[in-house]
Amino acid sequence: xxxxxxxxxxxxxxxxxxxxxxxxxxxxxxxxxxxxxxxxxxxxxxxxxxxxxxxxxxxxxxxxxxxxxxxxxxxxxxxxxxxxxxxxxxxxxxxxxxxxxxxxxxxxxxxxxxxxxxxxxxxxxxxxxxxxxxxxxxxxxxxxxxxxxxxxxxxxxxxxxxxxxxxxxxxxxxxxxxxxxxxxxxxxxxxxxxxxxxxxxxxxxxxxxxxxxxxxxxxxxxxxxxxxxxxxxxxxxxxxxxxxxxxxxxxxxxxxxxxxxxxxxxxxxxxxxxxxxxxxxxxxxxxxxxxxxxxxxxxxxxxxxxxxxxxxxxxxxxxxxxxxxxxxxxxxxxxxxxxxxxxxxxxxxxxxxxxxxxxxxxxxxxxxxxxxxxxxxxxxxxxxxxxxxxxxxxxxxxxxxxxxxxxxxxxxxxxxxxxxxxxxxxxxxxxxxxxxxxxxxxxxxxxxxxxxxxxxxxxxxxxxxxxxxxxxxxxxxxxxxxxxxxxxxxxxxxxxxxxxxxxxxxxxxxxxxxxxxxxxxxxxxxxxxxxxxxxxxxxxxxxxxxxxxxxxxxxxxxxxxxxxxxxxxxxxxxxxxxxxxxxxxxxxxxxxxxxxxxxxxxxxxxxx
Length: 608
Description:
alpha/beta, Rossmann fold, eleven-stranded mixed beta sheet, eight-stranded mixed beta sheet, 25 helices, about 40% helix, globular, HAD-like_sf, Phosphoglycolate phosphatase
């Protein structure tokens, strides 16, 4: 056994993070739950214990539905059965069986049957065994495709296009109101690969196939049912490690240090623990919080942002992100917010900028209370971000603070604040990861130093680093893997954001710049042709300025310089640079300029 294999056998099940967000347990049947042909009574009892603890159980099997034991098919142990390798899905309490990928083409199925190979037929599956896959290949080649083929321990399964265990599980979870990001998958064989790669945590029993072992996050020390019992015991005792160290996409990259090395934090540290982003006003805290939000959303996690001042509205540019409140009006009732999060599956930014302090705090207290219940039931939203916490957790905000403390006990909460010394100790004590930007106030430095020292971090290094951090720089203090000590504070330069900061965008698009920063159109002879005080005016002026003035400024690099140094729009400045090298003239020049600026303006307008 290699050192890596040994670590994956021995380390994951000791000293672990909370796994309360893993609400759904998806199990393969043969070779995973079963020992021989049967489900051991002790394994059934362990599954019942997990169910009683609030976990939702889903069976995901390659078997034809009717080939499963009667008590499995019609019992109440599994909320859903994903059978026929994902092609047929049965839900507890429902009479009908769903075929989310349809059936095999009748002509293709008839051709397979006519080959007279030994086979089984399900509602949507045609199954045979090696070496009869050669006959299957010949039929599919003659038909030009029209089906997918899965192998599993010598079994050959012909399925409707798109049907896999992972895809069938995803359909079942959507119907049940759960997320793949809340799902632990446990299996042993080749056809479990798709659900292993799609689910939040992939756990293999000890008798796992070598090819599937490579994509498992954890490998149990025991085979089949005995391994499952061991898994459930660790899960219920809170000693199962949900980290996925060999999945690089689960590492949130915040930026790079002076050596050019990435600095980041694992998803599990954010989702199972709590994060504080602290620093002086306008030091880049909201930028960093938005950066993490973008990355989590890109991985399919559901985020709820509580935004007191409307600083996160640009996140609406992200897929599956909905911004409510702010200029569009007041927020819906809390019950409607919960309905959106539970059934729509989108992430939300809740803009409280039009609310009074009292109304905002009352609403937020009620919202946090409801979010805590939704997370206990569904495991979502996966991450809650509160900005400007020092303005929320005021001395008179008792209900809000109490409900925040309860959410912090669940983990998966982050907050942004500029006065660490003004935050309740009961809140700060529940934070384990610290993302710090510059601060120079002695009372805030003392508060941060005390907090870090109390958790074993290098407080001396933090107090030396923080005053000297430039805008765009930060330091990360986070527990080391396995809680075996904490790394030294990691200083880094923050990465670029996908979306831009809303305060800058408002100025960028419409607000007039002071006279000395405006763009003045001239020609080579010095004749003036008007001015642009914003990007909107710049866009409008391009249609009326003589072409000789446009060519004059483009070839001199004036457009590029103004867009880069005044507007701070690097992408559009690069467009001007490329256009200058093409050297267009006349109508072509005007067309290319106006199209470039119009496209960029429309893109930015969508972000506001």
